[in-house]
Amino acid sequence: MSHIAVERNRRRQMNEHLKVLRSMTPCFYIKRGDQASIIGGVIEFIKEMQQVLQSLESKKRRRSISPSPGPSPKPILQPSTPQSERSTIVHENIKELGASCNSPVADVEAKISGSNVVLRTVSRRIPGQVVKIINMLENLSLEILHLNISSMEDTVLYSFVIKIGLECQLSVEELAVEVQKSFSANLT
Asked: Is 163 helix (H, G, I), strand (E, B) or coil?
């Protein structure tokens, strides 16, 4: 008898927690009302919020580096090559090979995740920039599986999931540098 009461209480608590999660998540993230859909929608919402947070932190970092109080119409890229670094990122006990290439114009990060590459760029809004990145990726024969665009004020985050083909000879460092070059083209 006590086991039945404990199980009933556990289900009641689980349903209450799911109701709270559902009420805190925008409705377009949750497709259906079942538990798996609610939890999946909450996970997607949290991922989006993490991207927005990264975007805001990057914007704050760029503002602290920039000596001018307001955005300049044409930011000046330093004549030296953008800073590129390779690192092994440990995330939840899973090693990911990644590279970043940062400049005053944009922060670019590429990480291998399974058989895909997750590519993220954070920059100020530049008209046509996402099209330049897509064209560059297609010219490199890379297949874009997913693109997510998040923006806040004049900062935009482009997040790509790219399929790695067997014929791909590009390293993550080279990919990050190539994407950074597409931002540099806007300065001319």
From this structure: strand
**Each residue of 149-163: pLDDT tens digit?**
888 888 889 999 888
H helix runs in the chain, sequence order: 2-24, 35-65, 129-139, 172-184
Spatial CA neighbour of 117 closest among 85, 88, 90, 145: 145
Full-model pTM: 0.51
Question: How far is Cα 181 from Cα 74, in angstroms, rounded to an integer?
Answer: 16
Give the whole-angstrom CA distance, residue 89 versus residue 117.
14
Q: How far apart are CA 183 and CA 54, in angstroms?
A: 19
Give residue-wise pLDDT tens across range 50-81: 887 877 777 777 777 755 444 433 322 222 33
